[in-house]
Amino acid sequence: MSNVIVNRVKEFLKRFPPFTFLSEASLQLVAKGVEVHYFAKGEFLFKQGDPAQNCFFVLKEGSVHLTETQDGQTKVREVCDEGDVFGVLALLGKRPYILNAVAEEESLVYAIPVSIFEIILEENSRVSLYFAAGFASGQVVVRTDLSQSQKARGIFMEASKDTGLLIFTGQSDLNFSKDVVTCQQGITIIEAVKKMSTMGVGSIVVTDAQEHPMGIITDKDLRNRLIAQNMPYETPVEEIMTSPVMTMTRDAGFSALYLTMIKNRLHHLIFTEDGTAQSKVIGILSDHDILLSQGNSPAVLINALMKTWDVKEMAKVRDSAERLLRYYLENELSMDFVASIISEINDIIIKRAVQMAKKKHDADYPEASKVKFCFLSLGSEGREEQLLRTDLDNAMVFADVPEAQLKEVKEYMLLISQEVIEILLICGFQSCPGDMMANNPKWCQPLSEWKKYFSEWILQPNQLAIMHSTIFFDFRPIYGYKPLAEEMTQHIYNEIADKTIFLNFLAKNALLNPAPLGFFRNFIVEKSGEHRDKFDIKLRAMMPLADIARLLVLSHRVVGINNTFKRFEKLSELEPNYRELFLEAGKAYEILMRMRAIEGLQSNNSGRFISPEGMGKIQRQLLKNAFAPIDELQKIIRVRFQLDYFTN
Amino acid sequence: MGWLDFFGKKESAKAGFVKDYEALFVKGIPRMRPISQLNFIVLDTETTGLQPKTDYILSFGAVKVRGYTISVQSALEIYLNAPLQNRESMKVHEIMHSHEAFSLQDFAKDMLGFIGTDILVGHHIGFDIAMLEKALKPFGLKKLLNPLIDTKDLAVRLEMGPNYDTRYGKPGEFSLDELCGRYHISLDDRHTAAGDAFLTAQLLLKLLKIAEQKGIQDYGALMR
User: Fold this and answer.
1) Which of A272, A308, A372, A377 could bond A279 through an S-S bridge, CB–CB 3.0 to 4.6 Å?
2) How far is the alpha carbon of A197 from chain B, nearest alpha carbon, in Å?
3) How much of chain A exceeds pLDDT 90, in percent?
């Protein structure tokens, strides 16, 4: 902390209302929290429609114009001078900005975090009245006029209730068409088009004689497959239809429907009587229906991501995804659904990052850029369990090339990886402290090297090898040539076939992490350091479960299932006598993920350290219950892998 | 005392925190990292004089800059305890009495922890670095490993081009006072370490924006 600097900020602020009303102590608190931003002429501080930032602004020097864009025309609504406060309305109403703020000349701006100011609003009624006055009179810039403050308070209180977050609320919101426009196979395109035209629809479902769905034709198909191909209008419909179609029952849960559409990039989903393609068509759901029923939805975000090539825009979308996550967590949506959505968004960002990197560098590497590669996510991201933007873990595998070419290819692959990492960092992900990232030359290798790595870890398991196994065995291909990743999976499968010693080591590792509860069923908390008296939910609860799931799945020689709760689900099928235990463990893992994400969002960090003191009684009990399966599973493993006789 | 010490080991043993600091520098900053993603520490030292050999640091001030933003919260301001033999000269500077003074060891530890691997920025940074390295020598640190940016050199490069020789210009043309005047940065708290660091940080923000407009957009181009 520097008193000189804080004093400087304080001296400036206290010349202007509402800061004039603050006590010395409150002003000190505000001044400490200030961030000084600099904007060059023409730069935007925020744009109309942007979600509210978590701070408001005081102009230190320069000039900022607040402008409004309407029907393509931009008009200046307000001119801010030194000491003017702006960007408050959006903040108090928690709604998007209604104006643009643009630096008219180079400007220094103090940004004041709302979290600090909220404390002051609560304790100082004059300050809240001051803001309320501006709020009620529709003032955009808060200035030195206190005349209307008295009556405004009630309005201010009302306005802050609205959270303004528009996401779907349930199945009832979904409007799908029950009157599906269909035609039978065999008829000509021109007949089908006439039917579409009279019914005023953009798609038609092709059925067989029993009215079972066979395919679908959309406006786009007419353009791409008929007219552009110069086909006659008398072509039978089945020649240009998209087939087969995805079908489901109408009462399938909303999240299942939704996920299917997002994952498969479907524009249409067809409802049939029994959910299969061998029954009658009873309804159709289009992605448009979903877009209409939701404002800020994953589909909208994914759509925005697919459309942009601008890194800053991508970062914005990823921030919105975090708001979505918060909403999902608050509304207790199933963890499976939430994790799938967030992983999907992360995957699209990575894919786009690779495409951008290739666009930038391929011209310089005409030969190397032809080599096939696959970008892999590892660790929790690989397991599709990363909800918060915690550490990046990823790797790069590329096809084997002749020795002479290797140097250049490696250089190219590293360059691409580095570019991808840079983009991900801008999108708010954190760098991996252990450097398990594709831009590390060690983890950017041709297939043969990766096979060597895996063989080495499996054949000579030592502590480091086991540590690597726990991260790298959970890889998942994200972008590029997937057969490379499949070959890695196959290689692991072959290597572990009769190497039980490796599994023993892995088992030992799974029991390594300290137990979550002490002898008196109290939480074991950190004894010293930054996280003193806090509970390490990752190390003590989540990692043991993830480790156990991986070990047991591998011991059954199941490869390709990476997700921890899906692994437990699989295990419950493979070992029916422990079915209950495995299902419970999967559920426990979901609960832990949820708790960690909520903690992380609240404290704006990785959520790894939870304070048991700060939790309610029910939550504490819930957490303790989630530990029960860990203990039992560890006992099973100790016996099964004979760890009591196994020392190294 | 080990028997090896008998042969007159000149170097001081490395303190744990120095080892921790040095271990951070396994990898450089990638050249393609955009300026908005870089971490800067803008620093200034107030000293007893201008000779790194004989003078020493009285106070140290620094702020963090990232994404064209200065965080007030992050600012660090440390006043140092004078070395014993120079206690007399301390009486000249009134700086000592109003603040809690740090021992050299506490300062060294906090300072290294604060700067990490960030890019160090200062006006005539060479001098500050020489002073800091001298102060850290007793703890086994030979050299600060961070990348360095001198706001004076950056301003010269941006205003006059990279090949300009300041010896032919007006004297003091690129002093902190002159530059702040030119870039409309109000001069207060001049000649306190934290105050100067804060001024220099504002200057850095403006220079970086100009650099960006001239096509200097990433770490590689900035450090050249």
Assistant:
1) A272
2) 52
3) 33
Long-range CB contact pairs, B161-166, < 8 A, 24+: B162/B224
Residue A419 touches partner B, C-beta closer than 8 Å:
yes
Task: Give the residue extent of every domain in chain B.
Answer: 33-223
Q: State pLDDT tens for residues B72-88.
A: 988 999 988 765 444 44
ipTM value > 0.90: no
- Give me the residue label for tokens 């864009």: A69
- A7 class by beta-carbon count within 10 Å (0-12 exposed, 13-18 middle, 19+ buried): middle
For the domain bounded by A3-159, which CATH number is listed?
2.60.120.10
Q: Which amino acid is at A102?
A: V
Beta-sheet pairing, B57-66 with A55-61: unpaired
Alpha carbon separation from A177 to A210, A250, A270, A300, A309 (Å, rounded): 20, 11, 10, 21, 35
Distance of residue A366 Cα from the nearest chain B Cα, in angstroms: 21
The phi and psi torsions of A36 (rounded to 5 degrees) equal: -95, 120
**Domain(s) of CATH 3.30.460.10: residues in chain A:** 298-497
CB nearest B194 (choices: A2, A39, A106)? A2
Among B30, B72, B206, select the one facing A32 at the smallest CB separation. Answer: B72
Q: Looking at B4-150, list the stretches that DSSP marks H as alpha helix, in order from N- to C-terminal side.
A: 16-23, 87-90, 104-115, 125-136
**C-beta atoms surrounding B124 within 10 Å:** 15
Nearest one of A82, A75, A81 to A99, comparing CA atoms = A75
pLDDT of residue B122: 95
A185, A214 Cβ separation under 8 angstroms? yes
At position B146, the amino acid (one-letter code) is N
Residue A135 near residue A152 (C-beta atoms within 8 A): yes
CATH number assigned to the domain covering B33-223: 3.30.420.10
